[in-house]
């Protein structure tokens, strides 16, 4: 995949994020504060915040970020942001599955928060 044009950064959309936007990726003007990104995407794609962003993982240059907790991060020119929704948001997941996910993800705090948003009781 090519790099973003000068003065821009690239946003990659996966799974339901791609379906909702109708795109696999796009470029946005840089710099942009990370905490402003969600509002920008929701303005472009109404409902995106509630349907996708509130339960997704986000990476900036392959590093997972905690969007509510990373208020000081600014996305710079040529950065790459990935919006990664849960793999299967509509399935029932058992507590054992949750523990397996957490162990695989190394108890990543961001992943834990996303997993906690799911209904774990059958």
Model description:
- 20% of the residues are buried.
- 32% of the residues lie in helices and 22% in strands.
- A five-stranded mixed sheet has the order 2-1-7-4-5. The protein has a two-stranded antiparallel ribbon with strand order 3-6.
- It is built from five helices and seven strands.
- It has helices at 16-21, 34-44, 48-51, 95-104, 109-116; strands at 8-13, 25-29, 32-33, 57-60, 63-65, 74-75, 80-84.
- It is an alpha+beta fold and 122 residues long.
- It starts with 7 loop residues before the first strand and ends in a 6-residue tail after the last helix.
Quaternary status: single chain
Q: Helix- and strand-based class?
A: alpha+beta
Low-confidence blocks of residues: 89-93, 118-122
The largest sheet is:
5 strands, mixed
List the helices and strands in order: EHEEHHEEEEHH
- What integer is the average pLDDT? 78
Tally of alpha and pi helices: 5
* Spatial order of strands in the largest sheet: 2-1-7-4-5
Please compute the radius of gyration using only Cα atoms: 15 Å
Subunit structure: Heterotetramer; composed of 2 small (MOCS2A) and 2 large (MOCS2B) subunits.
Organism: Stachybotrys elegans
Subcellular location: Cytoplasm
Pfam family, one: ThiS
